[in-house]
């Protein structure tokens, strides 16, 4: 078996070794014999019982309430791609998403600490037992097949794949929002084309009573209704997304609610919003859909329509990353 870097940079030993661990460990995953994920690459390489046929026969387990569904990795990726991105998007955009899903799967395998790898069946209910080799899945199947084995990495390691439907016109900088250097490849990128989406703007109205009740449920302090109604303050990041909702009063220690938590309290499409108070309600004017980190799917589709290939799309959204492939 041969490993090689493609598209952006030359292969290095660290990246090849990292993905080699993933490939050789998969048979143990399907057998529910997941052990310690270490760096003992030499031992795995010397295991002659692991061959190509066994690798291709591995299964991914998807858990539902009624039980576990087993399918191959490529079948899983075809199904998953159909659940997370519109199938009428351009093929190069779908291919970029397929690479992120494969990268996401690699991360799931590496981070698994239990004795078996079982993925959630959320979003798969409508796709279970559908014929992925029929015409309905043709574009997803092609996107997965044409990127077979390709994943995204940064400095030799698979990235934390991050994607969402639609930005507010700019993606977010993880280092500034999370105050960490763990994902330096998630930098802010202009997505002006996203503003042309018919789904760009949305509005949510919440009654005053419902707003106060929801906020009180998140705060630990005993804030009264008037304090919550009058003392709400929002902190925004450079991309225009709310990072914190602050609540203060003269005689209490201030508290905050994370921006993503706050927007989910009221079913807002994203944390890029402005809130206007009226006499009996608050009105949220929202821009974009999703958390805003990584690849905007709508933006990726616009880039594909303008002739960009999937590797160029990924390079745009993920700073200084590169593609790797196992053969």
Topology of this protein?
Blueprint: E1 3-6, H1 13-30, H2 41-45, H3 52-56, E2 60-64, E3 67-71, H4 73-84, H5 91-111, E4 118-120, H6 138-145, E5 150-154, E6 157-158, E7 163-164, H7 174-178, E8 201-207, H8 208-218, H9 225-230, E9 232-236, E10 242-249, E11 252-258, H10 259-265, E12 273-277, E13 281-287, E14 295-296, H11 297-305, H12 310-317, E15 322-326
Protein described:
The structure is a single chain. The chain folds into two domains: 188 residues, no CATH class; 131 residues, no CATH class. The longest helix is centred in the first third of the chain and has 21 residues. Strands 1-15-5-6 form a four-stranded antiparallel sheet, with helices on both faces. The termini are close together. The protein has twelve helices and 15 strands. With 327 residues, the protein is α+β, with helices and mostly antiparallel strands. The protein is globular and about 60 Å long.
Query: How many strands, which pairing sense, and closed or not: the largest β-sheet?
Result: 4 strands, antiparallel
Got a strand count?
A: 15
Rg from Cα:
22 Å
Helix content: 25-40%
Q: Beta-sheet strand percentage?
A: 15-25%
Helix-strand makeup class: alpha+beta
Overall mean confidence score, pLDDT? 80
Total DSSP helices: 12
Order of helices and strands: EHHHEEHHEHEEEHEHHEEEHEEEHHE
Gap between N and C termini: 6 Å
Quickly count the domains: 2
Spans of at least 5 consecutive residues with low confidence? 1-57
Question: Largest beta sheet: what is the strand line-up?
Answer: 1-15-5-6
- Rough outline: globular
């Amino acid at each position: 078996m041969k490993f090689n870097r493609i598209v952006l940079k030359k292969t290095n030993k660290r990246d090849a070794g990292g993905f080699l661990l993933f490939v050789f460990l998969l048979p143990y995953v399907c057998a529910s014999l997941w052990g310690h994920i270490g760096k003992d690459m030499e031992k795995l390489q010397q295991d002659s019982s692991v061959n190509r046929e066994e690798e291709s026969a591995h299964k991914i387990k998807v858990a539902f309430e009624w039980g576990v569904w087993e399918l191959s990795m490529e079948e899983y990726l075809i199904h998953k791609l159909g659940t997370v991105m519109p199938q009428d998007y351009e093929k190069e955009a779908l291919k970029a998403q397929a690479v992120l899903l494969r990268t996401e799967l690699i991360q799931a395998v590496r981070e698994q600490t239990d004795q078996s790898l079982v993925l959630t069946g959320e979003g798969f209910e409508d796709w279970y037992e559908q014929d992925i080799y029929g015409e309905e899945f043709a574009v997803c199947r092609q996107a997965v097949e044409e990127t077979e084995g390709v994943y995204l990495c940064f400095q030799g390691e698979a990235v934390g794949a991050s994607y969402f439907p639609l930005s507010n016109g700019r993606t977010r900088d993880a280092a500034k929002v999370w105050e960490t250097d763990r994902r330096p490849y998630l930098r802010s990128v202009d997505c002006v084309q996203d503003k042309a989406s018919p789904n760009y703007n949305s509005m949510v109205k919440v009654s005053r009573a419902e707003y106060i009740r929801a906020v009180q449920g998140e705060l630990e302090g005993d804030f009264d209704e008037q304090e919550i109604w009058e003392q709400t303050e929002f902190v925004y990041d450079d991309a225009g997304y709310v990072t914190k909702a602050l609540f203060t009063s003269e005689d209490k220690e201030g508290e905050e609610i994370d921006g993503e938590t706050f927007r989910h309290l009221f079913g807002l499409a994203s944390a890029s919003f402005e809130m206007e108070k009226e006499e009996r309600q608050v009105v949220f004017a929202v821009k974009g859909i999703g958390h805003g980190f990584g690849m905007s799917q709508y933006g990726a589709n616009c880039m594909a329509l303008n002739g960009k290939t999937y590797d160029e799309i990924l390079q745009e959204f993920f700073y200084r990353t590169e593609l790797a492939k196992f053969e």
